[in-house]
Amino acid sequence: MRKILLLGGTSMIGESIMSSLLQEEDDLIITGRSLSTLEPVAADLKIRHRCTVKFLAYDMCSAQECEKIGNKIVESWGIPDIIIAATGALGDQGIVRDDVKLSYQVAMSNYLGITSTLTPMIGPLEQRGCGHIVVLSSVAGDRGRQSNYVYGAAKSAVNTYLSGLRSRLRVSGVKVTTVKLGFVDTPMIAGKEGAFLVAKPEWVGRKIVALINRPTDVVYLPGFWWLIMLIIKHIPEMIFKRLKI
Amino acid sequence: MIFNRKKYFGFSNIKSAEVLVAAPSSFQQLGSLLAESQQPFAIRGGGLSYGDASFSSNGPTLDVSLQNRFIAYDRDVGQIVAQPGVKFREIFQVSSGDGWMMPVTPGYSEVSIGGALAMDIHGKNHRNSGGFSRCVEEFGLMLADGTEVVCSRSKNTELFYMTVGGLGLTGVITWLRLQLEKIYTNTIETQVSVVKGVSKALTALETHQDSQYVICWLDMLNPRNAESATAAVVTSSRSDVSGSSREESWKLRSTLPLGLISPFYQRTSNKVFNLAYKANTLYQQDKTILVPIRKHLFTWDYMSSWNKLYGNKGFYEYQFVMPADKPDAIVLMFDTILHYRADVYLAAMKLMTKGEGLLSYGLERGISILLDLPFTDKSTMLLNVLHKQLIEAGGHVHLAKDSFLTADKFLATRAQDVERFKQLRKDYKLDATFKTDFSERLGL
Q1: What are the chain B neighbours of A190 within 8 Å (beta carbons)?
Q2: Would an 8 Å CB–CB cutoff place A243 in contact with chain B?
Q3: pTM of whole model > 0.80?
Q4: CA-CA distance, B96 to B94, in Å (whole number)?
Q5: Are A43 and B23 a contacting pair at CB < 8 A?
Q6: What beta strand segments (E) does B1-40 contain?
Q7: pLDDT tens digit string along A67-77?
Q8: Could you give the ipTM of this predicted complex?
């Protein structure tokens, strides 16, 4: 029996991870924005995998609520063995970049909301000395592009946070994995122009489960994004600022 | 809602269209879209129907395949409530461990249950178990104004019987309550008998009508006439001997790129294949073979891209039902095929009974015949001739597989049902909202 916490339980990638991860008797908590969308997901997972599924709804954009939920999980449920953060909002860059409230929401759901929820759990995890934190990040965090820098900045922040956290938790034996996703065929990119080399969510789900079984530090999914981002990262700023990407 | 432009193909690759698609995140969202909008929509599920029933080039297509959640499962009585995007494979995975199985299953496990109801699909056991609708207790149906009603054999019966086999033209199926059947084993006992000639095959089929599953394979490439054609009658029933309970992995399914060998998928190679198949059935004759239940039911899982064998042009799958009491008419049809030296690479027969829905496939004491031919002028010519014989004998075509019919050809087979279906669609104000390329082609 494993205790699994999935932040962003109604996300498509979250669900596809669950479909290959869950085993009978696992104990799962999923979180999301509203009870009405979480409930059918929980019922479905319960039937498919014969595990216990609880669900919690909270507003990720409020740091207090994140902390409260984090504490509540540790106190009333216990320390999770596997934590998967599959939350994140891309937003429409054209609108987000000029709207303070929306860019705040993007920053919260991709970075601060996740870390605020995790913070109360990290101490206990470190003390216990085992566990695995997997955060779904994005290749967008590798360099700020004009087409999605609000989102990219939040992803970049979470990557930096995880890199430090990984180093802190190394001694205790708690694993931290950063998954840098390329384009995945989910509602997040539906109708967006310029998406290429799009991966299937089921495939991504299976790959992430493989990472849970064999923990790795930083992974690009699909792997070829490593090369693409390597090139993008090394373009001198002089030239990069002139690129319309 | 965000709309994308995509190109969709029917499973048999003949019909295709550039389509405007959106995937509603929930049925509520879909409902409000229907309520607000005046334009026609096509509802798409798994998109595995052979022709053009799952898309529309005249209005947006709404893809509901992501509505694929289980809602409830009672393992004591074997009842499942699920959204229409759930696939047969998923139901099998959830319920077979508890000894429950769908009584009616298609040959490919990726078919969604919503589409199965809309096409009232059948398995190898139609004569005994009927179409898919027989295991559907009730379902939710969203009408053109976005409201939802519950349909069963006692509630909203008119809508129930027109939605069964209603090609997705009677509203959006939002959930289904399914009654499963108890199984005590995970193996099937299979026997093959080889006979010569179509009439003998028909007699053999009828004598085995009490077996759970019966199917007859026919060689339509090597013989000279119908009475010298080799037929292999395969009968099978659930075994009392339980095989190993080890679950077979679902990942085993073949991903062979069969499209690559399509240039070699020709008359000659199929002739050789048929001879080899015949030799194999002769070898297996009078032996009882134990087969895992999954392998027996979902035959096509093991070569899931077989539709690509016919290449880019695609193929006809002309499946039709004939009254069993007209064996001469059936023999005549097979004689016609052989006379034209048509490229019927696959031919098979099954026993049928009447379907429940208004447009369901099936006849009381019927024989279902399936012919696969590459899409060529010669094939179209043959089908035109066969279709005339079909009309004369009082048979009709399986719509899930069709890419051949036109409005008058369809009307000639079952005028009464078609007129009634059209009238009901008008009465319930569904005709302006639900349209597909298929409904336009059939004049529904």
Answers
A1: 2, 4, 23
A2: no
A3: yes
A4: 6
A5: no
A6: 4-9, 16-22
A7: 999 999 999 99
A8: 0.87
